UniProtKB/TrEMBL annotation:
GO terms for biological process: L-cysteine catabolic process to pyruvate; transsulfuration. GO terms for molecular function: cysteine-S-conjugate beta-lyase activity; pyridoxal phosphate binding. PANTHER family: CYSTATHIONINE BETA-LYASE-RELATED. It is an enzyme of class 4 (lyase). This is Cystathionine beta-lyase.
Length: 396
């Protein structure tokens, strides 16, 4: 029999991460949950099979391993339920399909994760959903964009690549007056630094590929909903048959145990690097919400408990034709930083950002936007590598 975990509700963050989602006494005292591989689940008799009265019925509907992760995420999010899916993009697309139908109108923040925009502009529009993009800093002004057929408003704070902050509570209050669902991609902050459902969001979305995994080797997404919107999310998840694998769920659960410790390191190191970048002659602007002179800093300071290791800066260029050559020279000179997509792992990464798909918040004109993922390496080594990049860029 499981022990009561009522004490966990008032425990500290690290304690919750260490003990959430699993009770060792359920499985003979083993500290970690078993990895249960399942497709077929057997029933004791025909009546039980007909009524599906047992907890597990088929592999796509969950296993003890995936349930352990879902429970841990629910404890962090304060959600009524969580589904697991094979990627962060799937974590965005499934709730969109759950809550939107042909003829509906959806408002999507213009600073959104680019693959999300591609899904909206292709799959959603083909299915008859009208997609409209809005300024991330619109706040309560989103009222002017609401229509009788608006059914979903998608948020992301800070915004992908350029890190605009959104006033999530103000947006949610307006949207809920129109009986619309509010979704949020909260991958950057994780529920440790921002809890979307506490600010009026109905559905919280994460690419668990990033900080929950922490090691650049797992693809997974989580979607957590409040009580009102959980049934429809669960129904869509079951209808589509898209589920997370138990081995991956086990690894994500393992990553959760150290996520707060890793995030604290990412936060400290990234802020130090961002402050250093502000002093560099080759930098036109640093895009980091935790910097006091960043436009969205006050919202970040009011609503968020911390910042992760991802931010961008604008590499200065004195003429348009030098923007890309300078960026390529900078990136090619890096030795510690890897050039690769994604983030949230232990290693530092850099990527040249493409903002050509923006509708409202267009790209920067005074240089290239370079996004950095500051990993767990020593800050002095990270800065030394960036100095190599600036030296190469200055020679162009």
């Amino acid at each position: 029999m499981s022990k009561s975990k009522e004490w966990l509700a008032t425990a500290g963050t690290n304690t919750k991460l260490c003990h959430g989602g699993y009770e060792p006494s359920d499985y003979h005292g083993f500290v970690n949950p078993p990895v249960v591989h399942a497709s077929t689940v057997l029933f004791p008799n025909a009546r039980a099979m007909e009524t599906r009265t047992q907890r597990y019925t088929y592999g796509t509907r969950g296993t003890p391993t995936t349930d352990a992760l879902c429970t841990a995420i629910d404890e962090l999010e304060g959600s009524a339920g969580t589904i697991l899916v094979p990627s962060g993009l799937a974590a965005i697309s499934i709730p969109f399909l759950a809550y939107l139908s042909s003829g509906d109108h959806a408002l999507i923040v213009d600073s959104v994760y680019s693959p999300c925009r591609h899904f909206c502009d292709t799959m959603l529009t083909r299915l008859g959903v009208e997609v409209e993009y809005y300024d991330p800093e619109i706040g309560a002004g989103i009222e002017a964009l609401m229509r009788p057929n608006t059914r979903l408003v998608h948020t992301e704070a800070p915004g992908s690549n350029t890190f605009e902050m959104q006033d999530i509570r103000a947006i949610a209050e307006v949207v809920h007056r129109h009986d619309c669902v509010v979704t949020m991609d909260n991958t950057w902050a994780t529920p440790l630094y921002f809890k979307p459902l506490d600010f009026g969001v109905d559905v919280s979305i994460h690419a668990a590929t990033k900080y929950p995994s922490g090691h650049s080797d797992i693809l997974m997404g989580t979607v957590s909903a409040n009580a009102k919107h959980w049934p429809k999310l669960l129904e869509a998840h079951g209808a589509m048959g898209i589920c997370g694998a138990p081995d991956d769920a086990y690894q994500i659960l393992r990553g959760l145990r150290t996520m707060n410790l890793r995030l604290e390191h990412h936060f400290r190191s990234a802020l130090k690097v961002a402050e250093w970048l502000e002093e560099q002659a080759g930098v036109a602007r640093v895009l980091h919400p935790a910097l006091p002179n960043f436009p969205g800093h006050e919202i970040w300071k009011r609503d968020f408990k911390g910042a992760s290791g991802v931010f961008s800066f604008v590499l200065a260029a004195d003429s348009p034709e030098k923007v890309k050559p300078k960026a390529h020279a900078f990136l090619d000179a890096l030795q510690l930083f890897g050039l690769g997509w994604s983030w949230g792992g232990y290693e530092s990464l850099a990527v040249l950002v493409n903002l050509d798909d923006r509708k409202i918040r267009k790209g920067q004109k005074d240089g290239a936007v370079i996004r950095l993922q500051i990993g767990l390496e020593n800050v002095e080594d990270i800065i030394a590598d960036l100095e190599r990049g600036f030296a190469a860029s200055a020679a162009v």
